[in-house]
Amino acid sequence: MNSLNTSQETELSPLEAFNQRAAQKNLQGQWIAEEHLLRAIGGPRPAGIPFRWHWKDVETALEEATVALGPVDTARRHLTFINPGMSGRAAATTHTISAGFQLVKSGEVCWSHRHTMGAVRFVTKGHPEAYTAVDGEKLAMEDFDLLITPRFSWHDHHNPSDQDVVWLDGLDIGLLLAMGAVYYEPYGEDSQKLREGTSEGIGTRSHWLRPTWERGRSGRLPVRYPWSEVKTRLDMYEPDAGNPYDGLALRYANPANGGPTMPTMDCWIQRLGPGFDGKTHRRSSSAITYVIAGEGTFETDDESITFAAGDTIVLPNWTNFRWTNKSATEPVLLFSMHDIPALEAFGLLYEEPEAILNAASSPANPTAPLKPIYRHGAFYDQDEL
Ligand SMILES: [Fe+2]
């Protein structure tokens, strides 16, 4: 009797039996994939979770890595921020961007190589003598400078100064992995050859006075955005300039064409005035933010994350958030990187409740969700029908 019951309970419906036979032939019915579509009603589920890394923890880990790694490994003394909600994915801070800190000790050279991932570097502890060479150009690394290593550019880092140099890296790794577009190539020597003249430099290619014998070049330019100029620009704006969501947010534009910082990533400098109490907002893009100065909170639907200078915060895609500045007298300064250009390229940048980046409004659900079409599949419970 017992064996008869067990047999009845495990008997498959005709559809379940078909699903199994199809799977054995590497086929799958759309009705099974429907689950994923239904989950996307109202928008995508955010990839990963909002999270903050304290600078003190990062600094301690960098110091320990300095001891644990030998000098031959200096090009890899980088600690990536792994989003606790995406620990199974390779180097994922967001689903598109990997960010982390790199420390280069006095006298070290990080060997030259290139890859299709584009990289941005925001220097948090620099020195006038330290530099990154990018495609033959020498870009100095001073405090809070931003350096761009475009996709597939040769790059090597040099620290001839007598102090450690530290920076925040951001690379579009998740995006390129999804596109199957990761290429890598070592240069074969520690240092690439530098261009001797200045006529080939970024200043010549992006200046308003350009050679008549060259076609305009706007892509894959090694660019340094000096902090001194960024700060001067920020200070030109009135204290209450900006919008109620992001405060004053300026984009690091490509100096040759005014476009995004890189084809896949945009970088921002942001100022939250004293007492700033931002409105809640979300975007289909994800972001990683470094706190240059000030203290405040980063609030999502589920939690309030406090931050101070040196901390790094990750914002997953399609996640409600708002900023506050705790101080009544001092501004908060933020540097951030976003996958906005990648989404914009496909018309997928959405914002709500307002499209303050001139993006499209978030797609609305015109009607209440319909009941599932496939009523007889093993997938749905009876009370879902
Ligand atoms: Fe690299």
CATH architecture: Sandwich
Major β-sheet strand ordering = 1-19-16-21-14-13
Low-confidence region ranges = 1-5, 376-385
N-C termini distance: 33 Å
Mean pLDDT: 89
The figure for the number of domains is 1
Kindly estimate the percentage of residues that lie in beta strands according to DSSP. 25-35%
How does this model look, in words?
With 385 residues, this protein is an alpha+beta fold. It has one domain (51-361): Jelly Rolls, CATH 2.60.120.10. The chain contains eight helices and 23 strands. The chain has helices at residues 2-9, 14-24, 30-39, 55-68, 173-178, 202-206, 227-235, 340-345; strands at 51-53, 78-80, 98-104, 109-115, 119-125, 127-134, 137-141, 146-149, 155-158, 165-171, 184-186, 223-225, 248-251, 266-272, 282-283, 287-293, 296-300, 304-307, 312-315, 321-325, 332-338, 350-352, 360-361. The strands form five sheets. Strands 1-19-16-21-14-13 form a six-stranded antiparallel β-sheet. The two termini are 33 Å apart. Fe (ii) ion is lined by residues 113, 115, 119, 155.
